[in-house]
User: Fold these one by one.
Assistant:
Number 1:
Amino acid sequence: MSDSTAQSMAERRDRSHQDLRRKTIAHMLGKTTDLSDGPRRIDPAIYADPERAQAERRELFLKRPILAGFSLDVPNPGDKLLFDVLGPAILIVRNKEGVLNAFLNMCAHRAARLVTECDARTRMTCKFHGWTFDLDGKLIGQPGKEGFEGIEREQLGLIPVPVAEWHGMIFVRGTPGGDPIDVADWLGPMGDELAHLELGKARPIKSSVVHTGANWKYAFDTYGESYHFATLHPSTIGSLAFSNTMSYSPQGLHVRIGFPRADFIEYGSQPEETWPKSDYGGLYMLFPNVSINVNTLPGGGMFYGVSRVFPGETPQECVTLMATYRPAHATEDRPDQDWADIHDFVERVVTTEDYSVSAEGQRNLAWAPEGFRMVFGANEAVLQKQHAQMEAILASSNEG
Ligand code: FES
Ligand SMILES: [Fe+2]
């Protein structure tokens, strides 16, 4: 990237972050929040019904592009990424030319899991009978090959699934075949906003896998509203950000959210020209299951905190992949450990506060009387949007 392009990326990022902060400060000062046109009742069956869970996995997670990681998770030829949470086990590899391939992580012989540990080797050998594949999925080694005469080697390659790398983001589709993934089309107006985060230069610092006894939507719903900050997080998030006030802008299926941070109060009522440079980008929520928190460590240094929530084995379980990245422009003289610390803090809050409430609520739903309905308030507008989109997609798949 040329210097001028890099500069314009930084300028666009600054402008976007400044615009978001201005909106959240207006809400903070006015004690207001963005609202939908009214509350919505929610049938709790959407969190527990096995048929519904199956339809969601098929329509939302396997037919559509899903964020599998970022470019620096697999920077070099031979690097591999195991992406196991969609249902089918998916193997992402960077080939010798630097291009990403994705395959079912399944040997062409008798379907054993091919790669079990990530390394940087340029060949992948199955532990069952030793078949070996190159980084493009071609079978290049077959012990006892006389036993397989009559079948062309070309027919014994790995099974590809669509993968696309776009501005540092890696998307896959868990179903083999079909059209290539058009990331720009999938992201729509959110694309520009994500491009200027320069995710391609964001370094992975720490990641965790969190298993929770709640439906994936119940867990993911906790990311999209600040109504609970003061009550559920009094000594953590609730002391860092204002409760029940947010700005959100729908961007196609996706949405950008801003929650006013507690420190904005120090200068929010002053003229905008006197504000410090913005170090807050808000939440970038990618449909159906991604939240990218663009925020700053206490004392300075931007971090990207990524949470992706996936359905578990049953409708009452989910898996969250949490990861923290250090953007290239976070050049402060601070050790990576500070980014690892913020990762641990967020993970602790999410698991002990948000997800423990989610799991308790999920258990209650099993005993809720016939006809019970939950409610999303007008102040939980993002949840309403998210759920309405899912309903529309599932309804159109039933018609089709
Ligand atoms: S299953 Fe992989 S070599 Fe047999
Ligand atoms: Fe929360």
Number 2:
Amino acid sequence: METEGVYGPFLEWLKQSWYGVPRPAEALPLIRARYTEEEAAFLTGMPFAPKPLDDLAGLKDMAPDDLREMLDRMARKGLVYRDEKQGRLRYALNDLFFGMRAFGWPGRTDERTRAVAPPANRYWEHGFLDPWAPVREKGLRVLPIGETIEDTRDVRPYEDVVRLLDSFQYFVVTVCPCKHVKNLDPNEPDCSYPTEVCLHFDKLGHYIVDNGLGREITREGAAAILRKSAEAGLVHGISNQQEGIDTICNCDPCCCMWFTALFKLRHTGSLTPSNYRVHTRPEACLGCGLCVKRCPMKALRLESQAAAKNKKGVAAVLDPELCIGCGVCVYTCKGRSLKLQPRETVHDPPRTGRDFAFQFMMDHQAAQAEGTESTRNSR
Ligand code: SF4
Ligand code: SF4
Ligand code: SF4
């Protein structure tokens, strides 16, 4: 593996984070493009958990003011996490996964950002997403479009959009990193879906706005983005945990890394489905085929059916195994012949982010021990 100069030790250091550096040789072009030599050298050894500025100044043997200027600059590039606790500034090195989300959030189009997009897209498909293949709980869980659930009386709190929005204090929107990185890459087709659609809340939202990576919006603004996304056919995806939810993504089947994992890398269940599934009523179907076009999972088709009352005699038919319960098809069905109904078995997400990370580590380590990860990713 080519590990020139400062990038070799930096890559070894990044491997210590929870996400590590899958397929390091494939990661190297991205890391070279993303970090300058000075940044890579400086960040080697930087802790992944937030540490007060004064402690870091001791560690780096630097004056706190000089260090602060340097770290603030890197925080605005999404290389470093920055927050304030009990009046003290804290910083941490962003791991590769979070750092690549933060890279795309501001939607920059300068020369350096453009240089990162092609190696990022190559690495997405050649290593970056590998750790997700064997884990049971995926990075995002499908959040059903609120209006598409037939009976909302027993909806779980983490699947109730209105209650979720009411639970947040601070609302932020960023550009979607998956779409932005594809749009910047001349080797990839442009994405026609809206791009400023990633919603973040509370603590994560403050990190994003305080470091110039996104902009503050209102609760109504967040609700409007969810409506716009539903109209466009984007799938709502939420942090896969019950407490401490900080993100609602709006994902498209062409650029989203989870759909890439599904369609190109054949990771089964690359998004954790919601607790709902579509129910079809052929007698109400108009046979228009809009749901077939909109379904990101290709779970619907039109078929001749005796119960169909439209002139063509066709109605939508569901492949239940493919349905992730997003409601994208239901949202625009003019015949009102589709509805989301609860699945037979309810599957709750991990309770906290810590539980999620623990589950991820256990599944990932078990797969590595069994050698299943490389098998499932052979392509
Ligand atoms: S996961 Fe979905 S919304 Fe989030 S960044 Fe990717 S495509 Fe965008
Ligand atoms: S289910 Fe709805 S959207 Fe699909 S073909 Fe029938 S009427 Fe059209
Ligand atoms: S049929 Fe397709 S669009 Fe409709 S809820 Fe299922 S996955 Fe979503």
